[in-house]
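Hey L., structure's done. Input below.
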Amino acid sequence: MLVLLLVNVLHASDPDDNNSDNTLTGTLVAESTEESSVASEATLVEATSARLIPPEWLEAKPLKEIPFGKSGWLDIGGSYRARHHRETNIRPGTTGGLSGLDDTFWLHQTRLWVDGQWTSQIGFRIGVIDAASVGEVFPSRNREVNRLDLYQAHVNMLLNEGVGKLTARIGRQEIRYGSARLMMAPNWANRRRTHDGVRFIYESDDWEINPFWVRPAIRNHTTFTSFDATNPDQELYGIFSTYKGLEHDKVDLYWLAYDLQNSGSGSRYDTLGSRYLGEHNNWLYELEGGVQLGDNPDDTSHIAAFMTCGLGRQFASSSWKPELWVYYDWASGDETVGNGFHHYVPRAHYYMGFMDLFGRRNLEDLNIRLTANPTGKLTVLAWCHFFSLANGNDVPYNLNMRPYADLAAGSAGSQTLGTELDLMLTYNFTEQTQFRFGYSYFWAGKFYDTTPGVPTNTDASFLYSHISYRF
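Output:
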């Protein structure tokens, strides 16, 4: 009872989670898929006699703005989430995607963080996480388990403030850039993705420019009780910039590089891309794409590309305020397995379907998304994906960029992968308390009937629900 009272009254403070675009696309991300802090319409009312903590103590928010040093402050925050999965035909096994394996289990995630300001030029954040799985029959995915770990520990230093502001962020940190199609620490994952390195953030009225160099923290498979170490075999670096000087629109321009060394072989990918998005008279639009150059794992030259285009419409005068989008996603494949477009470390769960069957490589996805708000606290979403192979001589890929079922080039009997329907309901009891329920179904296409070596050709489903608390 004490914990519930705290998390429902104290103010939420996890700024990294709320670092989304100030656009309708970003708003949809926050309200429909992220663990957002959506304000409740009514104040929680409790009988005074039922309160275990004096009201004046709660109203004082004792864990926020704690004096620190001569002029600094500390904010203490945290969250707990319990999520139940019922997965049919999609447990990863050795293949990923449709596997013929079923499982039912719980995922628990507990986080605590401290935000602080030492002086007007120096701030910091420290965060710990405990991600656990209970009841799984098959081995956990990499994104599901990480027992008691340091997942954030960075310092922010204000280097210059004039026409613009330049800040350096050094240490272990979560990263999100733009649409997050290529780089993000996704909230869906039970084990949150984090990186070690340095970022520079320049902000002015019209521009935000972010040069960075980071390496991912790799999970310790030997023991979950040791802190994750920096992965010396991978590094990401580049420059991500956003122009904000347009009246209705925003433009992202970026160069992102990804170097990998695996078992004696290596690869390098340089992506030059851009994104244009905005709204006008209740019409919404987004266009993103890029070319990718570098070296493939087989030492051949890497040439690939991706593109996303979307058109949406808000129906603001309707009582439920529905929003409808139609998107087309394309990522190139190659005649050689493994040489197509590489999606880096993305937010694939959101864009490529909630069942996580496919990574953004050798993939076409025509999808239709509808969201609505029957009440101020309730958001409903329906999203339908029509998946197919971009190159019939290549194969589908999992989120980790491995070829599905280790299929060989030219083995695909059809390019039609199938159709996925995602349904989701999110209810925010308060700013801190959220419930979510979702159901997804995948109708397997001709690819699974006509391709030798696939583990199954049956349909798949995914049922899940979660409750989360934040303070």
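The helical segments are 2-9, 24-33, 55-59, 348-351, 446-450. The chain has one domain: 2-470.

-- N.
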